[in-house]
Amino acid sequence: MKKIKVIFIDTAQLFRRGFTLYLNAIDTIEVVHDFSTVDELNDCNLNEIDLILFDTCADEDYFALSKIQKENPNISTLLLSSESRIFENFLFASTNNVNAFLTKDAAPEMVIETVQNLVFENASDILFPADIRERLFGEAYLRDSFFTAKELNILGLLGKGKSTQETAQILNNSKRTVETHRRRMIERIGCRNIIPVIMYALENKYIRIGTQESLG
Q1: What is the fold, at CATH topology level, of the domain defined by 4-132?
Q2: What's the pLDDT at 27?
Q3: Which CATH architecture has domain 137-215?
């Protein structure tokens, strides 16, 4: 069986190097490169790469990763998210054709299984752990909501202090689309800016993302 050629991107050097050693101990996997930033992919030959395993350190990474995905559709992508960026990464993965999303507290065996399924089985039903949506959103996300799913995504990002442009980039939408949704939510609540809308969503458990401190 051929080895899966992997590029691993993570700013945390100790984690990256340690998990690279773990991956290389698996007979079916070879980490060809381990990088600290997405920018390092620009100088890399991706022709023989099967999978990119990555975390992000800034919203600017999303544009570069989206471009790489479009130019290299045969390369699978697995976003292994840190807890500090789990909300942004989850929304990016959901709206930008990332093949699989796991968090860094996932069992190493699950990461290995996901990598192998993506490359060998072309699996399409392993995108997200079942508990991720419940961890990031309130119970109202799973039932009839005062807000649409897209509105909840936008509210969560704005509540974390993202600008309209940054929110549009993460959600793979235009800035105008985000501005339209924002205006409609403000009008629906009957207020002058987005802050009371976010507070309403938090208080009524439409979103649960730990953003209260971002609103201060």
Answers
A1: Rossmann fold (3.40.50)
A2: 94
A3: Orthogonal Bundle (1.10)
